[in-house]
Amino acid sequence: MASTSTASHNQIELETDYEQPAPYSTSTSVEPRQNPNCLVEIIKLLREWCRSTQNDIERICAVPFLRFLWASRDSRQTQPDPQNAFDQLAASSASTSTRPCQIFINHRGSDVKHTLASKIYHTLDVMGFRAFLGVEELEPGGVMPAEIQSAMTSASLHIAIFSQNYAQSAWCLAELSFMLKTGAKIIPIFYHVKPSEIRLINQERGIYAHLFVKHGKEGRCTQEKLDEWKRALYNISFHSGYQVNNNEDEARVLKTIVICALKVMKNVPLWVAEHPLGLDELVQGFRSVTTEDKVNITGIVGMGGSGKTTLAKELFNRNFSSFERCSFVSDVRDAASRNALPDKQKKLLGDLGVHHLAFDNVDEGKAILANRLTSLRVLIVLDDVDHIDHMNCLLPKKDNLGSQSMVIVTTRERGLLKSWGLFCIYKMPGLNRSHAEQLFCWHAFLQPSPPAQFEILVEKFIQACGGLPLSLKVLGGQLYGRNSRDYWKSQLNKVSRILPSDIKQKLQVSYDALGDEEKEMFLDVACFLIGEDKSKAIAVWDGMHWSGLHGLETLVNKCLVELVCESDYRYCRHYLAPVRSAKIKMHDHLRDMGREILVSIADC
Predict the structure, then answer these.
(1) Is residue 175 annotated as part of the catalytic site, yes or no?
(2) Active-site pick, 137, 175, 413, 437
(3) The pLDDT of residue 383
(4) Which of 100, 334, 338, 450 is the most buried (most CB within 10 A)?
């Protein structure tokens, strides 16, 4: 999603359509003209300052600048193969962008780069919008970088400037086709061209016909792709847009675009994370379990600290512009524990356009919500839900939502989702090895990779965290500024015996919600039954006159244990279904928490 560096563009010989980096990017670099070692020294000095300052705000503000410099350093050291330039561009951007694009400007640089496109960009920038001026030239038949697609996907508003030579750029045409597929609002601007002239492309005539003939003769683009671009031009010519023929028209269009942007951006994107790593993969995984039903209701389930809320925020940011109304209702479990669910109902109603309602009773709120939710096309996220009553309070008539509405529920309770009639469930995976290392190192070193002398120790900490984002952040933060390898080794030994309180507190929420028998079963697993067959565990518990099968189901539903099919080592989707051999698995930190609890009980 982040815009590419000047250095990278020079290396792959691509002309860019912007003179300064897109404001939302944190990976953009400026080509240093001095000795590249100067940049390394600057990075070292900034890192030392971050370690020495006692002001947390100063340190937080310095992190994006440090990432900026680190990306600059990488861009100088890496000489990309032109054949793989686009793949490298996408890979480098996926892990460094932190702020999504709000407005994407599609244009032909040689026609409007220094005129209308630049004015639109700077006007939006002054207004505080994160606009993106796309890179112009794409070789016909080439693959559009993933960062450009991500920018267009996250954008809530697209602006397409059609000029005399617009269709000469294969990149412009590819962007236009993709923009139409996103479903976001598009404002077409016809710069010294007429919509009627563009519309004639359907008849192989009009202002762009000869440019398509040229694309066809060059033979680097399939006829299918050319036909797709023609359809995109034909369709966009019917969109309500603006004609620009002189300076007065430009001033009018600029004002109109700002007004439109303010309306579209009435929902401000949520802060996702300081280091959002692996989100594209998680979003793809989430979409793989969703359905095309009238109302798309999907659950995200996982243990505490696995990143459920982070993913829900990212999904909210990527989709809110496509709905009439949207609402992100956070910390539902906490609100219920404080008898504050009416406040969450009021928040949801306010986001749906119903304000200044005075009620303190949950049932009153349910009645109002049931009436208001009918027929509205909405995006609603219910975050951290732990009881079916809480879901019914906030979505009393989920089946009456408007067509194509989307509801996302995050919870630690798989069984809760099923009892609510929800079977589209995405289980949070742990971070992969690469993303886990980057997340840990950003918190421990303020850089994406470890110094050479700490590589082995970092690997051991990553293994201890088991891909759990919470643990990676907490343990990395505790080691920040500690340069002694002996200290690192002592902390590694300590982690294997005593969990940091921040991690333990988060994980113990699910344990505390268990019944007495289920707590005993959890402790049995933590101490004796990891790696054992589920039938053995059930037999042990049944012998103690407990409901072994029901207890195991509860532990799985609460994401406290997992069942793994030994035959092919795949997670069992249906833990009650007969399988060849289902082994019990538990995250190392849950295991350590269970053993600590047992020790504390014994001490009493």
Answers:
(1) yes
(2) 175
(3) 94
(4) 100
